């Protein structure tokens, strides 16, 4: 079984995913790192040189490959939900959990990170609000949702472990 963490950038997918993987003795997989390995370029370069559509094509190819493996905690990129096929790929062998946070918290967590090509705009908070609104419906692809705004990494990990323990995917 895999545990895939989806959600907007800055909601804690990577930091929570690493700790969760360690607790469960699973492999931690950062989807963005796998995309970089697959394509051979950093994500900002992929966006700048070939655009978002090309990036999403590579992302779909990588989710298909990764989704078929087992015993992984997968931290996805914020836009993975933009294609239904990605979610289907991630659900084929596990559970998908949405991590959320307020737009203000997302901004505070991402404002000093230069590796966020979608936020390289004049008003990043407005862009965050706009993207969250655009993606709102797509994020409803799973009933498992956790608001990380006021929680520590450890508290989020504990909530995920409780979800997994009570889900249809728990190991016998």
Question: Could you describe the 3D structure shown?
Answer:
- The chain is about 50% helix and about 15% strand.
- The chain is an alpha/beta fold and about 170 residues long.
- A 5-stranded parallel β-sheet has the order 2-3-1-4-5.
- The longest helix has 25 residues.
- The model has no long low-confidence stretch (mean pLDDT about 90).
List keywords for this structure.
single chain; 7 helices; 172 residues; shikimate kinase activity; ATP-binding; Shikimate_kinase/TSH1; amino-acid biosynthesis; 5 strands; aromatic amino acid biosynthesis; alpha/beta; Rossmann fold
Q: Quickly give the CATH architecture.
A: 3-Layer(aba) Sandwich
Helical content band: 40-55%
Order of helices and strands: EHEHHEHEHHEH
CATH topology: Rossmann fold
Strand content: 5-15%
Please state the average pLDDT score.
92
CATH class: Alpha Beta
Number of strands: 5
Give the terminus-to-terminus CA distance. Answer: 11 Å
Overall 3D form: globular
Q: Tell me the count of domains.
A: 1
What is the strand arrangement across the widest sheet?
2-3-1-4-5
Please, how many helices? Answer: 7
Rg calc: 15 Å
